[in-house]
Amino acid sequence: MAFDGHQQRKALTALERVVTALAKGDTTSALRAAATSADLDQIGAYAAVPAAVAAITQHIDAQTAVPQRAWDTLSSAVGPGPVAAAIDQLRGG
Known about the structure:
The chain is mostly helical. The chain is built from five helices and no strands. It has a single domain, classed as Four Helix Bundle (Hemerythrin (Met), subunit A) (Up-down Bundle). It is globular and about 45 Å long. The protein starts with a helix and ends with a helix.
């Protein structure tokens, strides 16, 4: 299958929706967007995102503090750039 830049952009858009959903505390939407991002990702850049988001949403759903290492894992999973910066803002970093 040939690389489709539009599909990869859709993967990034889904990743941006993860951050928006987490900011709202909408764990269902965050998990859905994380899965979509990984499904659309053609280069494996976001393969670790669903697990990282799942770890964070467990804490949100339990109404417990999200450990910094969970945010670090998500930030590493998305790689450097604007989405990682938005994650840093969510965690208060």
